[in-house]
Structures are given as C-alpha cells and as structure tokens.
C-alpha cells in the first residue's frame, strides 16, 4: 500500500510545489509559468488582492507527500469576523487553491493522496469553526482563478468532498496582438491615453463627449515575479456608452489598444467575460479573440 504523509508545507518543498503549480498553470494559459519566489511570496500575502487580502487572519499551506515527493498541495485562508470585513467574506474559510497530480501510470494512487489532503483541509476549516466554507483555484498566475475547466481532476475532488458550484461562470479569451483590428484613425473621433483603474486607458471622444474606453494591463508579468510568459497583457475594462452602440467603436478601441501593445512588445492579450454576455463575446471573437477556457467561480461546501 502507498504511504502518504499529509503535513504543513516546509521551505524545502518549494521547488516541487512550484513544479506542481506550473503544471496546472500550463494547462490553462499557454507559455506561462511562475517562479519559486512568486509561489513563496503568494503563500505569505497576496498584494494584488488589495481589498480582500488585509481581511485574512490566518494562512495555512498543506502538502501530501509520497516517497519524499509532493504529490498534492493546498493553501487555506481564514477571514476575520470583524465589521471591517466585507459581508461575503466575514468569518469564512476558503481553500484558496488545491493542486494535485492526476492519475497516471507512474502515480496510480494520486486520487488517494488528494482525498487525504482534502480531509486535512476540511479538518482545518472545522477547527477554525467558520461561518461558511468555500473553495477556488486562485494560483499566482495570470488568468488562473475560479476553477478552470482544464482541471477535471480537481473539480471531481471538490465534488467528492461536498463542494458545489454556486457562483458565476467566466469565459477567458485570448488573441494574438497581430490579429487585432488595425489602428484606423477616424477624423470625427479622437482618442486620449490616460491612467485608468485597471491599466492604461484609451478613451474615444467625439465633440468633447466620451463615447467609450478600453483599459489594458501590461504588468501581468512584472519583473519581480520572474514569470515565463513575457509579452502577455489583458483587457481590464471595455465600455461603450449606450449612445455609441452600433458604431463599431469596440473594433476602433481594440485597434488603438493593439497599436499600443505592439509598442510594449506584447504579443498576446487576454479578455474575460461572463458566460451570459454573448454580445461582448461576439464583439471580441469578431476582432481576433478565441475562447481559451471557462472557469467556474465560487464553490461552497454543501455536503449532503
């Protein structure tokens, strides 16, 4: 019988944990991986989550080990119960991410290891005595959030453990910057570049009135993260004023953004849309995007 040990993460596990995380990242986003430093930093805090991360009171990372090899790992968060915490997060416990090797000829009992680790996670959540228990797949890499459809073994594990999908489904799209519409200036429309909420903003104006804007974030692979996947950006916002619908302004703004991304040496760009927003998904696919994957947000523990 295989001998598994479930225990807290130790620093000597860092290389094996990073390898396991990158295997999951690679199944979602092409050509992206994260460094050991990125993984270790994310275990301590998540500065990108500047709203929710300050609400975290405890962090626990557990691993399942077999033959001195990490075959599964999970990172758990406990949120405080104070009034300063948002109501959806107040006094909850969450499996922030869970990674494990899928069954294979050389790991035939990997599901057993994953189940043992999940039992340890549920025991930790029980000790915290939190109001509700959630699970996700928020790895420290671009576009890896929710529970990507590319990890059926993790989905099956969550369902075996009593987690149910209770949130939204998001479509993640990708385009080569070279495939975006060409930048074609229009004499009646001017575009201004400013700093936006989610990156660099390009706003289209006509007669001094804002018609719409697009924001692109080119900092997904910041130097301190040491990721493989340079040349990747995403669309943080794309909004068209209702009065400007039907003027193909989406293509105009995507072309403007594409021109800027080429100057930034970005060759791929991501976009995220709710699965029910067929109109925006159609706009993006007609402008060079294609569906990369779908991801299911918010899994709640509801054992039968």
Automatic annotation (TrEMBL):
<dbReference type="InterPro" id="IPR000182">
    <property type="entry name" value="GNAT_dom"/>
</dbReference>
<dbReference type="InterPro" id="IPR016181">
    <property type="entry name" value="Acyl_CoA_acyltransferase"/>
</dbReference>
<feature type="domain" description="N-acetyltransferase">
    <location>
        <begin position="152"/>
        <end position="304"/>
    </location>
</feature>
<dbReference type="GO" id="GO:0016747">
    <property type="term" value="F:acyltransferase activity, transferring groups other than amino-acyl groups"/>
</dbReference>
<protein>
    <submittedName>
        <fullName>N-acetyltransferase</fullName>
    </submittedName>
</protein>
């Amino acid at each position: 019988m295989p001998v598994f040990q479930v225990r807290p993460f130790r620093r000597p596990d860092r290389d094996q944990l990073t390898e396991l995380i990158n295997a999951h990242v690679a199944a979602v986003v092409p050509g992206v991986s994260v460094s050991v430093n990125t993984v270790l930093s994310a275990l301590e805090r998540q500065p990108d989550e500047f709203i929710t991360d300050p609400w975290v009171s405890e962090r626990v990372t557990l691993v399942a080990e077999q033959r001195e090899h990490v075959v599964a790992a999970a990172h758990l968060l406990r949120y405080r119960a104070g009034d300063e915490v948002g109501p959806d997060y107040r006094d909850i416990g969450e499996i922030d991410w869970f990674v494990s090797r899928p069954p294979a000829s050389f790991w035939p009992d990997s599901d057993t290891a994953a189940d043992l680790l999940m039992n340890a996670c549920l025991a930790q959540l029980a000790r915290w005595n939190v109001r509700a228990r959630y699970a996700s797949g928020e790895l420290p890499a671009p576009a890896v959030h929710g529970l990507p459809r590319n990890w059926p073994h993790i989905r099956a594990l969550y369902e075996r453990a009593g987690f149910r999908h209770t949130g939204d489904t998001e479509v993640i799209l990708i385009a080569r910057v070279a495939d975006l519409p060409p930048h074609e200036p229009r004499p009646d429309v001017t575009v201004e570049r400013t700093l936006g909420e989610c990156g660099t903003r390009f706003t289209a104006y006509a007669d001094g009135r804002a018609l719409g804007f697009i924001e692109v974030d080119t900092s997904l692979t910041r130097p301190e993260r040491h990721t493989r996947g340079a040349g990747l950006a995403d669309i943080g916002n794309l909004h068209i004023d209702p009065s400007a619908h039907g003027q193909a302004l989406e293509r105009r703004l995507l072309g403007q953004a594409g021109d800027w991304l080429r100057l930034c040496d970005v060759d791929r760009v991501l976009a995220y849309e709710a699965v029910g927003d067929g109109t925006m998904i159609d706009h993006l696919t007609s402008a060079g995007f294609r569906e990369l994957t779908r991801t299911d947000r918010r899994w709640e523990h509801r054992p039968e």
